[in-house]
Amino acid sequence: MLNELYCAVSKDHLRRNLELDDTATFYFLEGLFESDSLPDVEYECPAPNLRWFDYDYLDLSKGFKHFAEIVNFSGITSPEDGVRRAWDRYGGGAGNSVELVLEYVRNIIEEEGPFHGVIGASEGGSAAATVLLDQLGLARNHGHPCTIQCGIFFVATPPLTEGGKGCLLSDNTDQRITIPTCHIYSEKDLFCWMAKALQNICQEDGKTIILHEGGHTIPHTEKLMVDVAKFVRRVKQGNTQETPLIVHNAARG
């Protein structure tokens, strides 16, 4: 299960790799809310521009860099501190849009599933993580294993709380993503602390971190996507004890 914020070039590299030997097939979801395009997003998708959550007063119309300058992340003490600073300064709540997204995806899983993994990018990564925690909770409450076996997050942000008042963080909740995860981001990304905060609520076993030299962008080289595909194959084969750190030097992966 993926979302349409995952750009076409990266998607095609990964799909070709995983579909070639029937390791995986893909099912795409679109966000529920229309949004203006962002001036500094490198890979724009055709209109309409969609997003997953409907925030009370988040304004990114001038781009990510402008947002980062307004919030002023200098001196943050931890990834979690950075997330809280963003929400306190300029985030606002997401209201009932969180529950709308969860219900939307629950229905698709019931009608079209089972699904064995989720992929999300940026805010779509937050939606994927929010859905993943919801599915893990539902499975636990019903006393059966979760069919979703892995999560893949590109330059992603943490999951939202029930009610959309903030993000679930490692220092404010005991909830954890307890399946293997793969995190792809850049230390040069103005929002890399968001990706690290998401990383911190995921279990260590089976965690893969892939770093690249770009910014807040989805790397689109085939070489990097080969490493993401290797993660998927490790999960499918049950070989999740490795927790590799992979560094790609190219600016785009």
Can you give a write-up of this model?
The protein is α/β, with parallel strands linked by helices and 253 residues long. It has helices at 8-20, 64-71, 79-90, 97-112, 123-142, 192-200, 222-237, and strands at 2-3, 28-29, 33-34, 50-51, 117-121, 150-154, 181-186, 208-212, 245-247. Mean pLDDT is 80; it is low at 1-10. The longest helix is centred in the middle third of the chain and has 20 residues, at 123-142.
Which features would summarize this protein structure in a list?
single chain; 253 residues; alpha/beta; five-stranded parallel beta sheet; 7 helices; 9 strands; 37% helix; 13% strand; globular; disordered N terminus
Which percent bin holds the helix content?
25-40%
The N- and C-terminal alpha carbons lie at a distance of 23 Å
Order of helix and strand elements from N to C terminus: EHEEEHHHEHEEHEHE
How much β-strand is present in the residues?
5-15%
Strand order of the largest sheet: 5-6-7-8-9
Average pLDDT, rounded to a whole number, is: 80
What is the tally of beta strands? 9
What's the gyration radius in Å?
Answer: 17 Å
Structural class: alpha/beta
State the oligomer.
Answer: single chain
Largest sheet: 5 strands, parallel
Q: What spatial form do the alpha-carbon principal axes imply?
A: globular
How many individual helices?
7
Low-confidence stretches: 1-10
